[in-house]
C-alpha cells in the first residue's frame, strides 16, 4: 500500500513540475512559429514570461505579418505591447496598407495606435472614403429668410496627419461655419434654393481640411428646407417694443396731466377760500361805515337792492343755460 501512495505522490509532483515547465517553456507555440517561418528562440519566449508578456500575443501577430511578407522584429512588437498598444490592430493595418499600396511604416502605425486612434480603421477609410453627415444647420440669408441645410462630407483619412490632426468634430464644425457664411452672404434665400451647389463649391474652396486627419473629397448638400422669416419676426418684435415704449410715454404724459389738473383744482379751492374770507369782511366794513357815519341807511338799502337784482339776473341766466343743455 505504501509503495502505491509514494508512486501516486511522485506522479502528481511530476505532473505539477511538467505543467510549470510547459508554462514557462511554451514548446507548442515555439513549434508553431518554427513551422510558420518565424525565427524565435525558446529562451526569448521564456524571457517574455518573466517580462509578464503573453508570448502568443507577440508570436501570433508575428506569424501573420511574416505570412503577409512584412519584415518585422519580435523586439518591436514586444516593445509596442509593453507600451500598451494593440499589436493585432497595427499588424492588420500594415497588411491592409501593403495590399492597397499605401506607404505605412511600423513606427508610424504604432504612433497612431498609441495616440488612441484605430489605425486599421484609418487605413480602411484611406482606401474606402467615409461619409460624414452634418446635423441640420440653420442659416439666415440677407432677406431675413431662414434656411436649414444638411450636408454630406466625403473624407479620406490622411495617414501622415493622423497623429496630431483634428477629428470629425472639427470637420463638421468647419463645414457648418462655411454653410452659415455662404447662406448669410446671399442676397436672397432663393439664390441658395436655385443653386445649392454654390454652398458646396464655396465651402470646398476654403480648405477646411487644413490641420485635420482627413482630406475632404467632396461636400454634397443633402437637404435644404425653408424655415422662419427671421427678418419679419425681428421687425415685429421691434414694432412691439416701440409700441410698449410709446404706451409708457403716453401713460407718463397722462399722469403728468392728471397731476397738473389736481394742482389747478387745489388752487381754485384756495382762491375760493380767499374770496370767502374777503366776503366775510364786508359786513364788518359796513358796520364800521355805519359807526363812522360814512354810510347812511338809504345807501345801505340801495346796495341791498342792487345785490338782490344781481342775484336774480344770475339765477335767470343759469336757468337759460340749463334749458339750452336739455334741448
UniProtKB/TrEMBL annotation:
Subcellular location: Cell membrane; Membrane raft
Family: Belongs to the flotillin-like FloA family.
Transmembrane segments: 7-24
Described purpose of this protein according to its UniProt entry: Found in functional membrane microdomains (FMM) that may be equivalent to eukaryotic membrane rafts FMMs are highly dynamic and increase in number as cells age. Flotillins are thought to be important factors in membrane fluidity.
Record's keyword terms, sorted: Cell membrane, Membrane, Transmembrane, Transmembrane helix
Topological type in the membrane: Single-pass membrane protein
Quaternary assembly: Homooligomerizes.
Protein's name in the database: Flotillin-like protein FloA
Record-linked Pfam families: FloA
InterPro entries reported for this sequence: FloA
Gene: floA
GO cellular component: membrane raft; plasma membrane
Organism per entry: Criibacterium bergeronii
